[in-house]
Design a protein that fits this description.
Blueprint: H1 2-17, E1 31-37, H2 43-57, E2 61-68, H3 79-82, H4 85-91, E3 94-99, H5 100-105, E4 117-120, H6 123-132, E5 136-139
Parallel strand pairs: 1-2, 1-5, 2-3, 3-4
Length: 140
């Protein structure tokens, strides 16, 4: 019973906290992408893909975002695991986004998340909002 009550409270807080959350406005005449991952090492092939698409599509290439969520989100704060992914992402016009729910659940202090990484409160909602704006979405 206690677990049911706590789950209900969590769900209500989650819903209330995301009512005003909206994904950024985007140009739907361009090809926009979001890739959801749970592992920092997957940034390398994702960024390479973004670079290839940018060359292939030219002016039709729009926004490209990597959304990280899940148990390994704390790896964002590990300089050795992150390597130069933030710099590579910036050069490739890729935005790295961290899920706030995952940061909270796995007790990752937001202050330790490197600058250059955007934090959204609800990564799942953010992904759906971008899909409604025409983003192509892939989950790894």
């Amino acid at each position: 019973m206690k677990k049911y009550i706590l789950s209900s409270i969590f769900l209500m807080v989650a819903l209330v906290s995301t009512i005003n959350l909206q994904a950024q406005n985007t140009d739907t005449t361009k090809n926009n992408y979001i890739v959801v991952t749970k592992k920092v090492p997957q940034f390398q092939p994702i960024i390479l893909t973004a670079e290839a698409l940018k060359v292939e599509e030219g002016n039709d290439f729009g926004n490209f975002e990597i959304l990280i969520c899940g148990q390994l989100i704390g790896d964002l704060t590990d300089a050795e695991k992150m390597g130069d992914f933030i710099e590579k992402a910036e050069k490739a016009s890729v935005t790295i986004v961290a899920c706030g729910f995952s940061l909270n659940k796995f007790k990752v202090d937001r202050a330790t998340v490197p600058k250059g990484i955007k934090i959204v409160e609800n990564g799942i909602l953010y992904n759906f909002q971008l899909q409604k704006q025409g983003y192509k979405s892939l989950s790894l």
